[in-house]
Amino acid sequence: MTGTYDLVVTGGTIVNQNGRGVGDVGVIGGCIAAIGDLSRADAGERFDATGLHVLPGVIDSQVHFREPGLDHKEDLATGSLAAVKGGVTAVFEMPNTNPSTTTPDALDEKLRRAKGRMFCDHAFYAGATEDNMGALAAMEAMAGCAGIKVFMGASTGSLLVAEDEALEKVLTTGRRRIAIHAEDEYRLKERRPIADSGDVADHCNWRDPVSAMMATRRAVAIARRHGRRIHILHVTTKEEMEFLGTHKDLVTVETTPQHLTLSAPDAYRRLGTHAQMNPPIREEHHRLGLWEAVRAGIVDVIGSDHAPHTAAEKAKPYPNSPSGMPGVQTLLPLLLDHASKGALTLERVVDLTSAGAQRIFGLAAKGRIAVGYDADLTLVDLAATREITGDWLASRCGWSPFEGMSVTGWPMATIIRGHIVMRDGEVPGPALGEPLRFSEVPAAFV
Ligand code: DOR
Questions:
Q1: Is any atom of ligand 1 closer than 6 Å to the C-beta of 278?
Q2: Which of 5, 185, 336, 427 sits CB 3.0–4.6 Å from 162 for a disulfide?
Q3: From ligand 1's centre to the CA of 306, what distance in Å?
Q4: DSSP assignment, residue 444?
Q5: Centroid of chain to Cα 14
Q6: 215-233: b or e for each residue (b if 16 or more CB lie within 10 Å)?
């Protein structure tokens, strides 16, 4: 093949969700323009990817970047810097900021703040409350909106839609897939005294598997009644996975690297409140159940639920310590490490971190390496064994539950729309992240 390209990524093994092959990727104007032998083509820039695997850019469909209002934990710049250092090219950011993202103005404000400061592409969720039902349909139709997010159980922040009647109103508003945090608020309230033990290992007894299953069943029942597509975020129990496996026509499923990697009681003993998140890290048989669901194809995406809190906040005695842990930067290294141990194939990693998000959220021109798609590429060295260290981490919170862990498989470069934004851990800037486009939001294409 001949021709002139802005960038040619040469000699890597190109991996999509359905297979792999050696070849070059030619980029023109931020899009993939050719795949094949481009050794005779002209190129403004060549990136030698010999020995590396070239994956579609990693899409993290659940992060909390805390801006506005909680910038002491993270902001859009630091969170997205952590993302690209970890090989992530696009994020969906959650609405439990301060103020919460519950109005069109608040969503616009996030998009405005992101411009020129975010290092990766991005979309923002609209948060549902019992008072903003009237605004949700308009919000989910805005360019740069990832869809509607519902908290059925209280977590960090004040967003909550606890009862069926209100949930039903949300699920009959708008038309895109709705993302749901499924923990039953009434059961959580009833069992809250369990946390008064002061022992963080009780976090998964307070917020028990039944709390998660009850909410998941309620959400699915209402979605079924109205034929509404929903997405259950961070599924943590074996039983929910078995149940969700019978509703795949309407319901999509996320789990997280934390829940696939850590289990109780060991995580709580080793990490204390750094292992505290909602829904909680659970016992080993649940972790193994999540892996069964990954292998069975029940899980559609793996999101990091990156939820940074400062070390000082986490040092408060349980249960005053906040729930959540950072993860956007370690998402891919952890999954590559699991792949290196044979837990899943590299193709399935791509399916869960790129193609899956494209498929279930209708992302435009992302999620696969194909001509006409955005030139978002994550280059990884499967042979590199590295330690996750504090000085590599970019999140403002400054810690990771995985610090000190040695992993095999490492992101070496992050390319977004043809721009090499990270190479060998360095991110020179500028921050050129743009809003994501969704096929269900025609305004994004005007
Ligand atoms: O542990 C969590 N932390 N779970 C959530 O759902 C919210 C998150 C946060 O924002 O801190």
A1: yes
A2: 185
A3: 8
A4: G
A5: 22
A6: bbebbbebbeeeebbbbbb
| 368: DSSP letter | S
Q: Strand 377-387 relative to strand 42-48: parallel, antiparallel, unpaired?
A: unpaired
Report how far residue 17's alpha carbon sits from residue 345's, in angstroms, rounded to the nearest whole number.
10
The secondary element (H helix, E strand) that includes residue 358 is helix 356-361
| Domain annotation for the chain: domains and CATH numbers | 4-54+370-423 (2.30.40.10), 58-361 (3.20.20.140)
The answer to whether the CB of 181 is under 6 A from ligand 1 is yes
In testing the pocket of ligand 1, which one of 61, 62, 63, 64 has its CB within 8 Å of the most ligand atoms? 64
Q: Closest ligand 1 atom, CA of 323?
A: 1
The model's confidence at residue 446, banded by pLDDT at 50, 70 and 90, is low
User: How many whole angstroms from its chain centre is CA 386?
Assistant: 22
Cα angle: 245, vertex 252, 267; to 5 degrees: 80
Per-residue tokens: 149: 């997010």
Of 72, 95, 63, whose CA–CA distance to 325 is shortest? Answer: 63
Helix (H) or strand (E) holding 73: none
Dihedral sign, CA of 4, 422, 111, 233?
Answer: positive
Give the Cβ contact number of residue 1 at 10 Å.
Answer: 14
Is pTM beyond 0.70? Reply is yes
Residue 371 pLDDT > 90, yes or no? yes
Query: Which of 65, 155, 204, 232 gets mutated to test ligand 1 (max ligand atoms within 8 A of its CB)?
Result: 155
What is the helix (H) or strand (E) element at residue 109, kind and residue range?
A: helix 104-114
pLDDT tens-digit readout, 395-442: 999 999 999 999 999 999 999 999 999 999 999 999 999 999 999 997
CB of 354 shorter than 6 A to ligand 1? no
Question: Is 424 considered catalytic here?
Answer: no
**In a 10 Å sphere around its CB, with 0-12 CB exposed, 13-18 middle and 19+ buried, how is residue 417 labelled?**
buried
Catalytic residue among 24, 184, 202, 305: 305
Rounded to whole angstroms, how far apart are CA atoms 137 and 175?
A: 8
- How far, in Å, from the CA of 65 to the mean position of ligand 1? 11
